[in-house]
Amino acid sequence: MRRVVTVITVIIVITVMTSKKVIAQQITLSLSPPLVEILVKPGKTLLIGYTVQNLGDPTALSVKIRTFSPQGEYGEMRIDPELISPIHFSLDNSNMQFEQPVLMKTRDTIQALVRVRVPEGTPEGDYYFTVLAETEPAPQIGGASTSVAKATIGSNLLLTVSRSGRVEVKGRVMLFRIKPDFTLRIFGREYRIVESGKKIPVDLIIQNLGKNVLKPQGSITLRGPFGEKTDYPLSPLNVLADSSRLIKTTKDDDLPNLHSALLSGYFMGEYTLSADVNFGDGTPQLYTNTSFIGLPVRFGVAMITVAFISLLVIISRRKRRKE
Question: Which one of 65, 119, 123, 269 has the lowest number of neighbouring Cβ atoms within 10 Å?
């Protein structure tokens, strides 16, 4: 038994002495501005300043630019592995280049001066890019291996190329609906029924049919059976060219991206829900609406169940008395 303990102790000591120390690296980056939107004519050159700050451990960091495209209806995007665009980019910094790592100490700040050149003959339309600040894996230091930590932070650049300075505003309401608890169809008309005390999800999806970014404005309005009215202003979200997006309301900005809003209250009777949407001054006003009926469904079912059980008990007692 002593030999076994001795052997195990020796193995543990050897393992501790020969094992390498692992150091976990903490990475915290900030990049500003988070979004840049520019209208530019062909043949022009722009200079945009980006501030990168390292709030974590010292790290090597590189700046790069990639094109991206919108994906889905919830604001997702797909970043391309390479930069493929007629727009030309370069860095005006003397001490750094694209794709080349620079060492940043804790609380270091660098200013990346991105020069954007739009050649003559560039087709009109929107071009979408992401300026990325990306860390590089740290090397081994003094026999200690650092964990392979990699962080990336990005800032979107929405570039609209137009010779005249005008943009194409062409959008429509693709979807406007609520999610009822159940529906009834009577004489060809569909009635949406919701439980009185439940929150009602609302979805508003705007489709961009043009070649330039849209920023929907307006509100969703709830009107009740007694003249009550509640407005839900729309958040200023971008709908990129040839895409669609779920538009949230400012009252429910903290909601997950699954719905535009959640209507709260105790709903009794018929309600009208409408959406008024435009894309800026002088643009057409889009209008759509839907309706629903609020009923205490659970309470009604419970009352019917109680009444039915009570009726059965009364009938049973009467039979027993007769017997």
Answer: 123
